[in-house]
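Go through the following before class.
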Amino acid sequence: MRRYKYLQMSYEEELQKILKFLKGFSEQERAKLAMAVGLLLAQGLAPASVLNSLLNEHLVKEGLSLQFVTDLFQAFLALKDINNLSTVLRKGGFSGKLMDVFPVSKRTPEHFVQHYKDAGLAPLVDLWKSHQAAGNKKLVESEVSEMFQRDLEVAEMLPLCQDLQKKHNLADVDMLTLAWKAMMGAVEWNKKEDILAEQSMRHLKKYASLLATFSTQPRSELVFLVKVQEFCYDHVNFMKLFHKMVLLFYKADVVSEEIILKWYKDGHSSKGKSAFLSQMQPMVEWLQNAEEESSEED
């Protein structure tokens, strides 16, 4: 098949036709067919797109599609790991359709988790949860971006962001990094260095208290600081503004003294490491001296 590419399309079409007529097979034959298709997918001899035939309304309603993919996934994972399965499903455009093979009455997260756990497919459950979380983050980021584009005040944004966080079950660190990304992406930044400095500091100062609300744990602070570093590295016009940003966030209680020192010591990203550490050296020395003076007074 790999040698004769012109046969590939007709082969896939025939495979899709076979899957459309699962009702014509006995339960035992369907199980054998599912195992065969699972092995074909695992060996790269068929794309996951052929599974779209299983979304036929009648096959789904009668539970045939669900049982077929369950047997298929078991066969696949007996040969390859969950990362391979994730790649195959993504390339075949089927990774977002795993819930669609469940009958409508059972199309819930609870049924999904219970069914695949009972089938010994816990890795598939974890994969689905990670995809759901990623989808939720994209949705929340889109809504938060819209808030920034509407130029809402923090007092208006905060309860909306907290509602989104609760609705989509996101951690504070997720909200912090999503808000940061949305916040910096909502502005058309000036390319002139002096104007950019004034523009960015004004923007960051306005929304720093929103970021501080979700900066509740040391891990959140460190992750955030690395995100700021990487943003400045990826957007070269901001390179020289990094230390000013960190100072602003320090004063606004977004990042603490301890986390700044931790970042400087061994928590930073490798992106632009030398330049950013050099920028931050005066502030770090100032923080260290202040800490020593405080200890002496005690």
Observations:
- The radius of gyration is 26 Å.
